Amino acid sequence: MNAVLSAASAEELAALRAQIESLQSLLRDRESEADRKTRQIRELETTLKIEMLARERAETKLQDLLRRMYGPKSEQLSPDQLRLLLEPLEADEQLRQETPPAPAVAAKEKPARKGGGRRKAPEHLPIERIEIDLPEADKAGLVRIREEITEELDYQPSQFIRRHYVRFVYADPTKQMAPKMPSLPPRVIPQAGVGVGLLVHLLVSKYTDHLPLYRQEQIAARVGVELPRQKLCRWVEQSALLLRTIYDRLRERILASGYVQVDETPVKVLDPDRGGHAAQAYLWTYLSPLSQAIVFDFDLSRSRGNLREFFPLDWRGVLQSDGYEAYDSFLRDKPRIVHAGCMAHLRRYVVEALEAGVHLDIVAQLLSDIALLYRIETEARKQALSPAARAELRQRESVPVLERLHEQFKLIAQSELPQSRLGKAAAYALARWETLTRYAEPDMGHVLIDQNSVERGIRPTKLGAKNWMYIGHPDAGWRSAVIYSITGTCKLLKINPADYLTWVLPRLAATTSGQVDGLLPHDYAATLAAA
User: Fold this and answer.
1) Apex CA 478: angle with CA 477 and CA 479, to 5°?
2) Would you list the domain boundaries of the chain?
3) Ordered alpha helix ranges (H), 140-223
4) Radius of gyration for the alpha carbons in the chain, expressed in angstroms and rounded
5) Which of left, alpha, beta for 71 (phi over 0: left; psi -120 to 50: alpha)?
6) pTM tops 0.70, yes or no
7) Which region holds residue 494: left if phi is over 0, alpha if psi is between -120 and 50, else beta?
8) Virtual CA dihedral for 513, 518, 519, 524, nearest 10 degrees?
């Protein structure tokens, strides 16, 4: 009996052991499967991180290239380079998986250093000769055979001088007539005791070099010259009064061209009704690319009133501006004036959409097409095409690109939220499409694609405002407008404003009839060219 029980117990024990071993084997298999899945999850996480980093790098590179494309170095990047970034991510992943070949080490010529070495001083600079000789004892019995000249470039601070006009007085010994003496040359500012050189330095320092009057007062004080700011203000005003006739003639020249670019920029002006407080005013800017002239007009308002004052009722021509509503309001009852828009402003809206970081492929295509439009304009400028030839080129090459852009913006307006950056770009484009594409019409070959010229003309006023901060009184705003117009036109003509002011101020002072024929910056530039 006991033997039977022992045999049964042994069988049960063996079965139990077999079951335990089976469970242990199953447990080991499940642990292996869990480990395998854990490894797979970790590999997927690593792959996902690599893909996300690669995508971020690609987007960063795209944004960087687009900024370079539309920044100061826009001509160095072509849309073909941009399209390389728009390949599918699968291709990019395949490239990442491949082992990149080791870069070949090639011998390169050492580039020449730039900016180093000693350069000869300009020939027009005056020469100060300093002779260094041997002592008499050392050169006894010797003969001078040559000179050894060592040149250096040096600087002396600007010098104030006292100029005496000496006039000889003659009298009749018999006293039959009054004494005689020659007349003084015409004074730019009579009774002020200031020469044209100092006036020109004052105007150029303030309106070209952006040096406020109070700093000029301090600079003069350091060399012992007292120039109170109130006196400097009077000199600026008297100079502006003389230059006002030139200013008026520039305005006439701009209107006569029939094509005017307009923009406005804010400036601060002290409010006489609120002591110590500054109010907002505006410098309206009118530029003619055809006549190469620019005029600023000071106004306390940004409304269309300044436009009505500048343009005569019967004026006929093209007005180019941004999308500010005052221009639309002004042109509503002006059928003789054709309104042209600014492609650069549309491009800024698209660049803002780029910075949002969404729909980069769509934004890149938009910017690529806009870049193509600008490349066509660059080619026309390089070839110096006539307006008719430029219009023909635009009809052939620019119009198809504009039509493609128009369709793209229509699709974007249907799919994007109006408040998104891309939606705002589409809304801006579609609302102003007629004016934005005006430059490409058959009879508009003389019109530019944008109004960047007038914005470049405004730039000196923005730099100056950072230094002199505000205009001292509303009645003084016209002085800044007049002098900025003169210096801005000189910049357009690539002539030195100091040279022109030195040339024109004495001539204006000698003019008694107010005639300024032959005294515009254009006349001075022609004189230089003839010489």
Assistant:
1) 90
2) 195-311+476-531
3) 196-207, 213-222
4) 38
5) beta
6) yes
7) left
8) -170
Cα distance between residue 428 and residue 413, in whole Å? 10
- List strands edge to edge, sheet with 278-288: 293-299, 278-288, 259-270, 317-320, 337-340
CB half-sphere exposure, 437, CA atoms < 13 A: 18
What confidence tens digit (pLDDT) does each residue in 252-302 have? Answer: 999 999 999 999 888 887 766 556 567 788 889 999 999 999 999 988 887
Angle between helices 452-468 and 196-207 in degrees, nearest 10: 100
Q: Is 51 exposed, middle or buried (0-12, 13-18, 19+ CB in 10 A)?
A: middle
Task: Supply the DSSP symbol for 182.
Answer: P
Sign of CA dihedral 86, 91, 96, 100: negative
CA 483, CA 213: separation in Å to the nearest integer?
A: 15
Question: Cβ of 477: how many Cβ atoms within 10 Å?
Answer: 21
Distance of CA 328 to the CA centre of its chain: 26
Read off the DSSP letter of residue 121. Answer: P
Give the separation between CA 348 and CA 370, rounded to whole angstroms. Answer: 11
Give the ranges where 357-448 is alpha helix by DSSP (H).
360-382, 387-393, 399-415, 421-431, 433-436
Q: Give the separation between CA 162 and CA 325, rounded to whole angstroms.
A: 55
CA distance 302 to 286: 14
- Give the tens place of pLDDT for each residue, 127-169: 888 888 889 888 888 888 888 888 877 767 678 888 898 998 8
214-236: average pLDDT = 91
Strands 293-299 and 259-270: unpaired
- DSSP states along 423-442: HHHHHHHHHTHHHHTGGGST
- Token readout for 222 is 């350091």
Structure tokens given for 423 = 């939606």
